[in-house]
Design goal:
With 191 residues, the chain is mainly alpha-helical. The chain has eight helices and no strands. Helix 1 packs antiparallel against helix 6 (124-135) and helix 2 (22-33) packs antiparallel against helix 5. The chain crosses the membrane at residues 43-62, 74-91, 103-119, 139-160, 172-190. GO terms for molecular function: metal ion transmembrane transporter activity.
């Protein structure tokens, strides 16, 4: 296995999966909500980074730990089945509530950190992180890759501020992402 494969696969997979995801929509809402505060974009980006890093580290650790409890053959089938399940799940579009959050009064960094952490719990990208960590015995590379993927998808939304997910061909993106996860499932079964 190429040493960079877990990093690159994790980055690309999560960056694509994140397009149109509820956390990307949350990034847009937070950028609009705090646009009047100087330095809010930096605070939001740092909140996304730290929240994702902690959340995905826990998910990757769980994937690495859980895969050690079962036989390699069973693990391979479970990881492949998980990729196929995520491929189907990606086809269901996410929505995020636009209501006022009680966390907004805590400022852009704390609000972003808390809301992103909560939004990522059980999200497609968190589950993908568990599965990627189970597939690759490279916890640090998977965490770096999934965190980088989240940043690649969300930072432009925060910076642009007026960016709208409705302008993207989300159905096509979701289908492409589903194909990507299905291919990861096939690759897991073959290799």
């Amino acid at each position: 296995m190429d040493a960079l494969e877990p990093l690159l696969t994790s980055t690309f997979t999560v960056a694509i999966a994140e397009i149109g995801d509820k956390t990307q929509l949350l990034a847009l809402i937070l950028a609009a909500r705090f646009s009047h505060i100087k330095g809010s974009k930096t605070a939001i980006i740092l909140g996304i980074f730290l929240s994702t890093l902690i959340n995905h580290f826990a998910a990757a650790w769980l994937g690495n730990w859980a895969i050690g409890l079962i036989s390699p053959e069973l693990a391979r089938y479970l990881v492949a089945a998980s990729f196929f399940a995520i491929a189907l799940w990606v086809l269901i579009p996410d929505k995020v509530d636009c209501e006022e959050s009680r966390f907004y009064k805590m400022g852009p960094f704390i609000a972003t950190f808390i809301l992103f952490f909560i939004a990522e719990m059980g999200d497609k990208t968190q589950i993908a992180t568990v599965v990627l960590a189970a597939k690759y015995d490279a916890l640090a590379m998977v965490v770096m890759g999934t965190t980088l993927g989240m940043l690649l998808a969300n930072v432009p939304v925060v910076i642009a501020g007026n960016f709208s997910a409705e302008k993207l061909p989300l159905t096509l993106i979701h289908r492409g992402c589903a194909v990507l996860f299905a291919l990861l499932g096939v690759a897991t079964l073959m290799f």
